[in-house]
Design a protein that fits this description.
Keywords: DNA-binding, Transcription, Transcription regulation
Number of helices: 7
Order of helices and strands: HHHHHEEHH
Number of domains: 1
Protein name: Helix-turn-helix transcriptional regulator
GO molecular function, one term: DNA binding
Radius of gyration: 18 Å
Pfam families: HxlR
Structural class: mainly alpha
Strand content: 5-15%
CATH superfamily: Winged helix-like DNA-binding domain superfamily/Winged helix DNA-binding domain
CATH topology: Arc Repressor Mutant, subunit A
């Protein structure tokens, strides 16, 4: 793992280009709520209330705002069904799924980090 990191982080690199790419990534998936929302939708929660219930502490207003932003960034699709009452469902796009391996790596790292800082490794 260390050798792989050293290979990726070796010199010379285009730092300005890398910083721009990192900032773009953080802009799209950063913040307290976006990754939990993606995780919730990828775990089968499609309706607004189901997503909200699966994420402790998120407000209706914040979830609504984040879903709109994520739709603009092509991470999710919003589908409105003209039933009575109207039904709205959110699904991940293929583009969102391309971020999957990174999310899984972050989950793995987070678990290891928690063990490390609690002394349970």
């Amino acid at each position: 793992m260390k050798k792989e990191a050293e290979k990726v982080l070796s010199f010379p690199r285009k730092q300005a280009e890398e910083i721009q790419a990192l900032q773009d990534t953080i802009y799209v998936v950063g913040g307290k709520w976006r990754l939990p929302i993606i995780n919730s939708i990828c775990n089968g929660n499609k309706r607004f209330r189901d997503i909200q219930r699966s994420i402790p502490g998120i407000t209706t207003r914040m979830l609504s705002r984040e879903l709109k932003e994520m739709e603009l960034n092509k991470l999710i699709n919003r589908t409105v069904y003209a039933d009575t009452p109207v039904t709205v469902e959110y699904t991940s796009t293929d583009y969102c799924y391309s971020f999957g391996p990174i999310i899984l790596a972050m989950i793995d790292w987070g678990k290891k980090h928690r063990k490390k800082i609690t002394g349970k490794d």
